[in-house]
Amino acid sequence: MARALLVTSIASVGAEGMKERARRGRNGTEMTLPRGPSAPGALQTLQWWFRPIPLMDRCRRRFGRVFSLRLGPGRPVVMVGDPEIGKSIITGDPDVFHAGDTNGLFRPLMGSNSLLLLDGEEHLRHRRMLLPAFSAGHGRRFAEQVREIAERQVSSWAPGKKLRLRDEMEAISFASIMRVVFGSEDGSTHEPLSELIPEMMDRCDSPFALIPWFHRQAGGLSPWARLLRVLNSIDAVLYDAIRQRRRDPLSELREDVLSVLVKAQHEDGSPLEDREIRDELLTLIMAGYETTTSGLAWSLERLMRSPEQMERLQSEVRDGKDEYLDAVVKETLRVRPVVPIVARRLTEDRVIGDQLFERGTILMVSIYLVHTDPDSFGDPDEFRPERFLADGGRDLPWVPFGGGSRRCLGASFAQVEMKVVLREVVSRVQLEPVGGPEPQSRMRFTFAPGRGAAARVVEQVPPSRAPATRRFRVPVPDEKSVQAER
Ligand code: HEM
Q: From CA 421, how far away is CA 173, in angstroms rounded?
């Protein structure tokens, strides 16, 4: 998502020239963009692409918590690292702060019916439709299935083996999202998708694949043409799965996303079209596995370099306690947010903080800057899960899943998955890091450990010494809470 947001901001702002603009709003308040670097837009764009974390840090030091960036040829975007202002944007009136508008570049992939691309009533309607797939009973089964998947993966880690933990976590996360979306194991869907989806994600890594200007066939050799070919193969698998599920008499009893969508109806009672179901399936797969892959890789990358915290975690897990495990997941997503920004586009002029912003302005709330705000977090760069122990960090500005009516639909699933997998890993193996701390690098749609969380297996603990399985409760978003979010 991060990379797409990056590309979105480059591609969708209109041409305005390089000068900072100022004009009067209706109430006489001056509309001025916040200060920002004076380097040419092309250079800022390159810095944002290749070294986004140092760029954000530098801008905060020079210009404060709200600044402008020129990404691409058009009007600057406004980057917000102030926790209060950021929250007011993320949770602001969804009719004024459009999110779907900023995700336009996903359209050729996810299709026009994707939750990520919708705004207003249509967005809420789709969200309500998907909610039953995230219900409690399904969640408990999901935790047990993830544990089995993780157990299988970890069993193959022989002592002395060198691992890229990111790749190992990808295998677990992919199998897990397949369970959420399609239900119990179904080789005819899982197997082809396990090749095709990562290939599609890799092809999206190139800016030339997503920016509309580069959407040319070039005799079938362009990045866009190659991406389309993979997408067609994915569509064939998805449409086949939809057709089979429509014929499956047991789909009435099933609670996975595909079954929920096959049973869902429009307000006039008509069923969803295949195309609508396909768009939501692909959206959830794309949003739901790369994110947890990076989150898990970061947890282990940080824990391996924090011996005290690793020891405490192992000890509490051995005693069957969850509190520290929960804090480790929260602290990982704070200090290494895998989706580093969320974006909104203003549909009308708005005063935010003490400044008036013009309709059309793209506001990018930097989760990274909010989470490392020195007034909110002592020693913000330190990995210290203890800060979430007292009351779960209720008063901290912790927003890894965004918020308001756009809050990540898979937030509970993601945290349960991360806890189940971490419990399995730290109780079954002793790992040591290979090399120094890893940089935060762009990887497909998220920020991930730059060397893939390189590790060596020191010891594998036999299952008898490992703790008994525990169940995790999955808090469920319900329709009321979605309405309350508005
Ligand atoms: C560590 C893992 C994850 C992180 C950090 C994460 C983060 C996010 C963020 C920041 C947003 C945008 C929220 C906003 O605009 O305010 C989002 C949206 C979304 N996420 Fe996640 N996510 C994760 C895992 C998942 C999983 C596992 C699923 C599905 C099973 C999922 C499905 C979605 C969907 C459908 C949306 C769009 C919601 C909407 O627009 O209404 N995510 N996520």
A: 9
pTM: 0.89
Distance from the CA of 410 to the center of ligand 1, in angstroms? 6
**Which regions of 106-263 does DSSP assign to beta strands (E)?**
162-164
Question: According to DSSP H, which parts of 81-135 are helical?
Answer: 83-90, 107-110, 120-130
Q: Is 401 in the pocket of ligand 1 (CB under 6 A)?
A: yes
Handedness of CA 349, 350, 356, 360 (dihedral sign): negative
User: What token pair was written down for 37?
Assistant: 């670097």
Spatial contact of 264 and 127, defined as CB atoms under 8 Å apart = no
Ligand 1 atom index nearest CA of 417:
27
Exposure b/e, 471-480, CB count within 10 A at least 16 = b: ebebebbeee
Residue 480 CA to ligand 1 center (angstroms) comes to 19
Residue that the structure tokens 């979430």 belong to: 388
- Within a 10 A sphere around the Cβ of 155, how many other Cβ atoms? 12
Long-range contacts of 224-229 (CB under 8 A, 24+ apart): 227/200, 227/203
Position 82 confidence tier, pLDDT thresholds 50, 70, 90: very high
pLDDT in tens, 277-331: 999 999 999 999 999 999 999 999 999 999 999 999 999 999 999 999 999 999 9
Distance 91 CA to ligand 1 centre (A): 15
Nearest ligand 1 atom to the CA of 413 is 27
Give the pair of three-digit tokens for residue 183.
């239900």
Does the beta carbon of 299 sit less than 6 angstroms from any atom of ligand 1?
A: no
